[in-house]
Amino acid sequence: MRIFRRKTVATKFGIEAENQKFLFGQIAARQVAQVDSVKSLADVEFSVFSQWGEDGILEWLIFKLGCIPPNFIEFGVENYRESNTRFLLKNRNWRGLVLDGSKEMVATITNDSISWRHDLTAVAAFITRSNIEDLIASAGFSGEIGVLSIDIDGNDYWVWDAIKNVSPHIVVVEYNSNFGDMLPLTIPYRDDFVRTLAHFSNLYYGASYKALEVLGKSKGYVLLGSNRTGSNLFFVREDRAGEIIDTIGETKAFPCHVREARNKQGSLTLLGGFGRTELIGSCEVVNVLTGDTGALSDFGPLFSDGWKRAFGVEV
After folding, report:
1. Which of 83, 85, 99, 217 is buried deepest, with most CB atoms within 10 A?
2. 167: phi > 0 → left, psi -120 to 50 → alpha, else beta; which?
3. Considering the chain, what is the average pLDDT of its residues?
């Protein structure tokens, strides 16, 4: 009986904490809705359930665009407690599909009250460029959707390239700042790519922002910028860009200062700056425009003067 009581109290505390966060988010959403224009997307950041300010950016973009389908797809969500779309689901009551490679994580989502309080479908699947469209279609999604959010720490470029059965108005996709901002580079495609196994540092994954900008353009999307942390890019479909592009001063991607590098023993090293890129210099990358493949250190220059200055290098 005492054990049951402790669980009840803990659950109640968790619900109250989430409700408080949600209330803050509702207030912040009303505030950003009053912002007419921004110097960059970083000006409207706030986080309720997102990691690095994406909640605020999405709220502002959706408010500015106005007419947008009330649904989303997000993959790479783990247990969905920290995600780019949970606030959309709760605040706007959108319909959603979330996917993750872990059955345990997806079970956590389906057992969360959010799955019966809202129209949320959670699917466990290891995503590849071969299965992503089937996963989307099997969940009942097709055609125009509001938001697509991609964060799988690996084949992000290749999977977005493969998605053709939905047409998102807004796309959020993670980029790897350690590949620099000068060249369109991505990891080569591998069905079984796992970031934590690909290189001990945990820094080898995904694509540069230039590679994703090139891909976005080829798919009919305009880059609007990134969050200040330098982890996620935001795109809008070309036919909607005219409604918002003039309200954003700089549609640039920020460099990332997050120091998440690991050593061979798996411990954080707090390595920052260009040392992170040097650590993965021997890892293979592909230039998506030329098709050239080689070690990251064979390509260059990787960093613009602006990004060099951001890392404290005199130019």
Report:
1. 85
2. beta
3. 94
Torsion from C-alpha of 125, 128, 134, 135, nearest 10 degrees: 30
Q: What percentage of the chain has pLDDT greater than the value 70?
A: 96
What's the DSSP call for residue 207?
B
Q: What does the block give as tokens for 82? A: 């920290």
- Using a cut of 0.85, tell me whether the model's pTM lies above it: yes
Q: How confident is the model at residue 13 (pLDDT cuts 50, 70, 90)?
A: low
- What is 117-130 written as a DSSP string? HTTEEEEE----TT
- Which domains does the chain possess? 69-310 (3.40.50)
131's tokens: 């299965």
- Dist CA 1 CA 27 (whole Å): 39
% pLDDT > 90, the chain: 91
* Best CA proximity match to 97, nearest among 129, 79, 119: 119
Which 8-state DSSP code applies to residue 270?
-
